[in-house]
Design brief:
Chain A: InterPro entries: ABC-2_transport_permease, ABC2_TM, ABC2_TM_bact-type, ABC_2_transport. The complex is a heterodimer of chains A (about 260) and B (about 325). Chain A is mainly alpha-helical. Chain A has helices at about 5-20, 25-45, 55-90, 90-95, 100-130, 140-160, 165-180, 195-200, 205-220, 225-250. The chains are: A mainly alpha (about 260), B alpha/beta (about 325). Bound molecules: adenosine-5'-triphosphate and magnesium ion (MG).
């Protein structure tokens, strides 16, 4: 199996440059939203809340909020990245180029992941203005964020291939990801829930993602880190497999 | 002005593209039935030639190009280019093929220079600013290199598409209707550009609706209709076979018989001697010359006429004729 490094890097660079072209718009909205959450939940409400598992409420919600933004931004960035060329027709160039699934993923998904990491850094920096927090396992946290960004950028890529209109493109993040994230323990520990909701919550995969990230921050969480990591890796592999099948059958790409 | 097909050395012509039994059926969607866009197409393209694929709307030209370039998955058949089988060596193959699409499909917020440089990288070639500059200058785009594509005129956008296709120095170039919707001047430009490419040894396959265009540029012409290649031949041979001029002279006085001086022209006396009809020519201007000569002869012979009605056979006529011929032989 061969890999065309020049092609992959060209796509990657092109996608990042496209991001820079609209850097203000791409960053301002997620950062503003996160600030609002911190002001409302961190400063205003957080002051009246008890600690959760020995962590101040304001600090407790940092990983959840980070994840909330990461999931929606990774998904929508990657989905737009591949949907736009399909929409304008410029995808012909990609299809006629000597690139396969590997180069395309490194290029498009790699760029989406990079954008998400930049965004994560900005959000974590912004958070320091509102709350005091520490990261117990910074290296772990970095890899975990990288993993989540990759998995959901891959999901976004699939979404961008599947969608045949802008509506569908926004549907999945809006109607599935955001509700699941809100219900997934972004602003609370699922221990706070009464049965049967606690058990129901465990069927929400986002609960594991939030818990995993929270563990890297505070060394404790609802679900153990191994389960969370395993689930995310599994999800990532599933996405890669789906994309590989899509490329080999040409679904939504080749007539 | 035009150089002809490179002389085949040792009597053999090298094949650059070989298509065998290519069939493409687009699946039906909803109530729409499946479409047989290509039906068992065989086509061989020679290295260094300019090949024109001539056919009406919906003939399957774009589908044929798509099958070679990777936009369309063939239903069956084989495609070899540069001696490589597309099934296995598609990467190597594609790196050497360039495509100018029929539709204007570009990121319009992109700048000209970056868009062209991107294409080169995408095809796996190392960045080469000097080469990009050369391509842009050849296509008179250098002055526009920092403009966004949306700020360019349609003709210039089309040139950008050509620049993008040339950025990785392909050996085989597909141009899908390069002159659709461009003005006469740009059309001339385009023809010159294609001539230059031929001099550099690039093999060019272009599609067109226009006989004149095939006539002006191509070494060989293939006629395609309803997914079938009806014939492939040297341009001159095809024009001789297909091109027809028809002219009718309405005479002031009915004539009993044709004068002997017209015997070597393809003319007949019709309509009870009131019309002289000319049917002939070879599609390369001979017919028009002969009609002009005929008019002069009539004047010399003192045969008066009140009207001349002249027309060149259209692509439509040609297809009808070819289909009839095909029906007769099979
Ligand atoms: N994606 C598609 N799905 C279904 N049918 C298609 C598709 N693309 C083309 N066709 C059909 O296949 C046939 C050949 O189309 P194609 O675009 O190859 O023709 P063409 O010779 O390029 O025509 P034109 O001169 O108008 O560009 C037409 O009947 C067309 O309707
Ligand atoms: Mg076409």
């Amino acid at each position: 199996m061969s890999f065309n490094l020049t092609s992959a890097l060209t796509i990657y660079r092109n996608e990042l440059l496209r991001f820079l072209r609209t850097v203000f718009g791409s960053l301002i909205s997620p950062v503003l939203t996160t600030c609002l959450y911190f002001i409302v939940f961190g400063a205003a409400i957080g002051g009246r809340m008890d600690q959760v598992g020995g962590v101040d409420y304001g600090a407790f919600i940092v990983p959840g909020l980070l994840l909330l933004t990461m999931l929606s931004e990774s998904t929508s960035n990657a989905s737009f990245g591949i949907y736009m060329p399909r929409f304008t027709g410029s995808i012909y160039e990609l299809l006629s180029a000597p690139v396969g699934v590997a180069e395309t993923l490194v290029g498009f998904v790699g760029a989406a992941v990079t954008k998400s990491l930049i965004l994560a850094l900005i959000i974590l920096t912004t958070a320091t203005f509102f709350v005091d927090y520490q990261i117990a396992h910074p290296v772990f946290a970095f890899f975990y964020i990288l993993l989540v960004a990759s998995a959901f950028s891959l999901l976004g890529f699939i979404l961008g291939l599947w969608a045949d209109g802008f509506e569908k493109l926004q549907m999945v993040p809006l109607l599935i990801l955001t509700p699941l994230t809100f219900l997934g323990g972004t602003f609370y520990s699922i221990d706070m829930l009464a049965e049967p909701w606690r058990t129901v919550a465990l069927f929400n995969p986002i609960v594991y993602l939030v818990s995993g990230l929270r563990w890297t921050f505070y060394g404790q969480a609802d679900v153990d880190i191994a389960t969370a990591t395993g689930l995310t890796v599994g999800f990532l592999i599933l996405c890669v497999a789906v994309i590989t099948v899509i490329f080999h059958t040409g679904w939504r790409l080749r007539e | 002005m035009k150089s002809s097909l490179p002389a085949p050395n040792d009597g053999r012509v090298e094949t650059i593209l070989d298509i065998r039994g290519l069939t493409k059926t687009y699946p039906g969607r909803g109530s729409a039935p499946p479409v047989d866009a290509l039906k068992n197409v065989d086509l061989t393209i020679r290295k260094g030639e300019i090949f024109a694929l001539l056919g009406p709307n919906g003939a399957g030209k774009t589908t044929l190009i798509g099958a070679v370039c990777g936009m369309v998955r063939p239903t069956s058949g084989s495609i070899h280019a540069f001696g490589l089988d597309m099934k296995h060596d598609w990467r190597t193959m594609r790196a050497r093929i360039g495509l100018v699409p029929q539709e204007m499909s570009v990121d319009i917020f992109e700048k000209v220079h970056r868009s062209v440089a991107y294409s080169r990288g995408l095809f796996g070639r190392k960045a080469d600013p000097a080469r990009i500059e050369e391509v842009l200058r050849t296509l008179s785009l250098w002055d526009k290199r920092d403009s966004q594509l949306r700020a360019l005129s349609g003709g210039m956008k089309r040139r950008v598409l050509i620049a993008k296709a040339l950025a990785h120095d392909p050996d085989l170039l597909f141009l899908d209707e390069p002159t659709a919707g461009v003005d006469v001047e740009l059309r001339r430009d385009m023809w010159n550009t294609i001539d230059k490419l031929r001099e550099q040894g690039v093999t060019v396959i272009l599609t067109t609706h226009y006989i004149e265009e095939a006539e002006e540029m191509a070494d060989r012409v293939g006629v395609i209709n309803k997914g079938r290649i009806l014939l492939v031949d040297d341009k001159d041979a095809i024009m001789g076979r297909l091109g027809r001029t028809e002219a009718e002279f309405t005479l002031s006085q009915p004539l009993a018989s044709l004068p002997a001086s017209l015997s070597d022209l393809p003319v007949t006396l019709e309509n009870d001697g009131r019309t002289i009809a000319f049917r002939g020519g070879d599609g390369s201007g001979l017919g028009k010359e002969q009609v002009a000569a005929l008019a002069q002869t009539l004047v010399r012979e003192n045969i008066g006429y009140t009207a001349i009605d002249q027309r060149e056979s259209s692509l439509e006529d040609i297809f009808v004729k070819l289909v009839e011929e095909e029906g007769a032989t099979s």
